[in-house]
């Protein structure tokens, strides 16, 4: 059972409670999801496989490649992207989102209206806080659910950034804020990453404004990074292995050349 399965079951157990509902949607927007496609396509021209039901039409989405493969029963093209980005992509298409259908996990249907609400919760991407900082200190305690959502949201940046730190930044006026420092993220991707992380954190299951997390992008040569690394809570982003170069025919002892 996956983390998103568990979050969904907690929400279904107490559907009137706000916290489990927000925590599930936080996990949904932060998690990398796998959209089943009819055919290969570019990022701006994806054609999802659609299931027609009595409740409407839904794009088929899974929270792991294994579940997608199990549902398809054969190799199929797919696109991998965070749930929040997927919701924005489907917005206005008339499609809902069918998560983990075909017995692959705990199923969930998000109607077009639900996706519209989900996208409306996305706050404006936070601006860089570097110019405001006077000092940094260890982070204040955050709820475990919020840390897990943050960890999953950062995992979606695998291969784009190296690591991140959570700390407390204090301004010259004495105002203290939680800060999330992302290290060595390509500048052209920073606005996109800021929107993704802010959307995930909007569903933290807490209304405490003192737990707002501001975002900061630093490179390894920034002098502020050393201070943040000394006191911050570190998140190591997953590494994407380099693909092995193709081997010349006959050089792999496990696959000798065929003689005719």
Jot down its keywords.
single chain; 260 residues; alpha+beta; 6-stranded mixed β-sheet; 23% strand
Describe this structure in words.
By secondary structure, this protein is α+β, with helices and mostly antiparallel strands. It is 32% helix and 23% strand. It has 8 helices and 11 strands. The strands form 2 sheets. Strands 1, 2, 3, 4, 5 and 6 form a 6-stranded mixed beta sheet that branches. Strands 7, 8, 9, 10 and 11 form a 5-stranded mixed beta sheet that branches. The longest helix is centred in the first third of the chain and has 13 residues. It is globular, with a radius of gyration of 21 Å. 34% of the residues are buried.
SSE layout:
Layout: H1 3-13, H2 18-30, E1 32-36, E2 50-53, E3 56-62, H3 65-72, E4 78-82, H4 83-90, E5 96-99, E6 108-110, H5 112-120, E7 133-137, H6 144-155, E8 163-171, E9 176-183, H7 190-201, E10 213-218, H8 223-231, E11 233-236
Parallel strand pairs: 3-5, 9-10
Antiparallel strand pairs: 1-3, 1-4, 2-3, 5-6, 7-8, 8-9, 8-11
Helix pairs in contact: 1-2, 2-4, 2-6, 2-7, 4-5, 6-7
The helix-and-strand class reads alpha+beta
Low-pLDDT residue intervals, each spanning 5 or more residues? none
Topology as a string of helices (H) and strands (E): HHEEEHEHEEHEHEEHEHE
Rounded to the nearest angstrom, the radius of gyration is 21 Å
Helix content: 25-40%
Strand content: 15-25%
Termini Cα gap: 49 Å
